[in-house]
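I wish you would study the pair of lines that follows with an eye to the fold:

===
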Amino acid sequence: PILYSYFRSSCSWRVRIALALKGISYDLVPVNLIKDGGQQFSAEFKAVNPMQQVPALKIDGITLSQSLAIINYLEETHPNPRLLPKDPKKRAQVRMIADHIVSGIQPLQNLSVLKQMGEKKMEWAQNCIASGFQALEQILQHTAGHYCVGDEVSMADLCLVPQVANAERFKVDMGPYPTITRINKALLELEAFKISHPSRQPDTPAELRA
């Protein structure tokens, strides 16, 4: 497999965690979203992903984009360890939390949106994340065990950790979100989350390396 990734992309990080958890080795092709006006806009990368976004994964003779589509494919082709619970209610909760982050928070504060916000980008990002986290904190109080849904790592957790990293980067006050903070801390102790971390990628700038 070949993963097109950017060290700081939260969408790429989700996929890196899934690959690490499932023990799938891959080659990484860095796509720098800042350099050269954004390498994702090159003709070469547009041929890989017409949406000109990371991540993209070449695997089993196909090319997939969109992090949840990639994670779902990995789940179906490499079912262990499981990232979606067997129980239909828990499975639905995992998908709900993942969608809440992937559709309801992350796109509002991603690079392409922030570029258009100009000087207000920090305030905009903080507001988008805070309003999303207020809802998420409430949801997790009903679903969480050790992790987002019960005591097994799931697709929801793969979405949570990169989003908390974004929140910290945009200096969001995490005080009002004790459940999110607790789960994030527990997940960051797991090896798959450590090795996939933005501070430990081949394209991580020297000054940001762990």
Summary: The first strand starts at residue 2 and ends at 5. The radius of gyration is 16 Å. The mean pLDDT is 96.
